[in-house]
Amino acid sequence: MAAALRGRAGPGAAAALWRLQSRRRSSFDVAVVGAGIVGLAVARELIQRHPSLALAVLEKEQELAHHQSGHNSGVIHSGIYYTPGSLKAKLCVQGAALCYKYCDQKGIPYKQCGKLIVAVEQDEIPRLKALYERGLQNNVPGLKLIGAKEIQEKEPFCRGLMALDSPYTGIVDYKQVAQSYARDFQEAGGTILTDFEVTSVEMAKESPAESEDGLKYPVIVRSKKGGRLSCAHLLACAGLHSDRVARLGGGSAQPRIVPFRGDYLLLRAERRHLLRGNIYPVPNPRFPFLGVHFTPRMDGSVWLGPNAVLAFKREGYKPLDFSPGDFLDAVTYSGLWKLVLRNVSYGLGELYRAFSLSAQVRQLQKFIPEITTNDVLRGPSGVRAQALDSEGNLVDDFVFDGGSGAVGSRILHVRNAPSPAATSSLAIAAAIADEAQRRFQL
Known about the structure:
Layout: E1 5-6, E2 27-33, H1 37-49, E3 55-58, E4 75-76, H2 87-106, E5 110-111, E6 115-119, H3 125-137, E7 144-147, H4 148-154, E8 162-166, E9 170-172, H5 174-187, E10 191-193, E11 198-203, E12 219-223, E13 228-236, H6 242-248, E14 256-267, E15 278-281, E16 293-296, E17 302-305, E18 309-310, H7 324-331, H8 334-342, H9 344-355, H10 357-365, E19 376-388, E20 399-401, H11 405-408, E21 411-416, H12 425-440
Parallel strand pairs: 2-3, 2-13, 3-10, 6-15, 13-21
Antiparallel strand pairs: 1-5, 4-9, 5-9, 6-8, 7-8, 11-12, 12-13, 14-17, 14-18, 14-19, 16-17, 20-21
């Protein structure tokens, strides 16, 4: 049954396993920076390929998957949107299949509830049909175009002229998935160190003759709280801080991470019957990550949104969250101003809707007219680590980077892992592990 609930495991099972890690070992063959879903998937992939190596994951927070991986919509995307033949399209389609298979194997609950991408204006229909052709070229299962009557058969309260029906789309709790990756990694012998915020990466200045490690682990990594470890190679999947961690190891200043906050509304519990599955708009090709979404969640709630506005703090989930350093990093970056000046009207519209509940509801009413401002509450937010080049272009593909000097050949920075990274995490992990093997000759 496509919409059936799968699995039994709850997110609390062995949730604190990583806290039991022994901290006696201080030297590792490979250290992975960042315990989000991508970093954990990469660590899991590496230890499965190379079980004899000593591997560690370093995480600055006290819990895993705390930021982007724990603040996303929870959608298992099917791979419709991406350029046919691109790595991004391939990884999403592969990643979705791997995600469903992994959840079945581990007993992680999910729902394959489907998605409708709905055209509500005539000028959206050609774009919707082009999206359908793109999805077919990407080998997305089960796609079909449906008319207004079929839309209402699937979503009785939704109004639209035409829709692309994607039955393969699902939902899952990605934080639970990430924690499962962590357990796999640890059970295979890996080490996870939390509360380890990397502040320094450098080559050892000397190797005492009495050291049994000799030159085997020449990369020295230090943390904000005085922690220190050595490793042969470093692989960084630092998400919102990927550009900063890259610069620590002599990496390029480009691309820069510019944080965009997405705010969601919540549909009141007594109105959740208005929705059965995911409802999405026809994407704007200039800003593919914008547009109001209707998203059911594994806990039974329904998220509406998000918008997209500049965040004044890289991990700022509230409108008034502010970091002077993060703010200056963003507003002094020429790439951001070039993006803003090209899209002033879009930016102002998003900013207005961020503060106006009625403006957000008007967007929702294009799809479900019955929704009113009394039916919604302000809900959670997430922050997207958007990689932006100096010309103001949104970076939409992998960016791998080493660094300068002797340390550069021993570091691989994943500066940008293409969205939807959570859906594609297992496929992305294989691609990153391939790159690490090539660079590090593991």
